[in-house]
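Progress against Task 2.4 (sequence-to-structure conversion) is shown through the following example record, which the project officer requested during the mid-term review.
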Amino acid sequence: QVQLVESGGGLVQAGGSLRLSCAVSAILFSAKTMAWYRQVPGKQRELVATITTTSVTYYVESVKGRFAISRDNAKNTVYLQMTSLKPEDTAVYYCGSFPMNTGWGQGTQVTITS
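Structure tokens generated for the chain above:
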């Protein structure tokens, strides 16, 4: 059974930083490009960043230069280092495989105050 467990969210002021972690079951992690997504209530879940098995990364324009995705293959864990946070980054953050993801964890809430 695929498991995704996100953690590390919280409430921070604009300009602050957070580091999100996602523990992934080995069967999903080992051969997949992984990604972070986020969702605001009433809106569709959106892609934030991806990382391939060889650590090639991609970021959507709105987070480029502020967020950094990484993976620890020994720990089956994906990270998202977020800096210079803005109120518009407020969302529930999820990790998953990319481009197709068939199951979601509980997510982790990130709230940025101005």
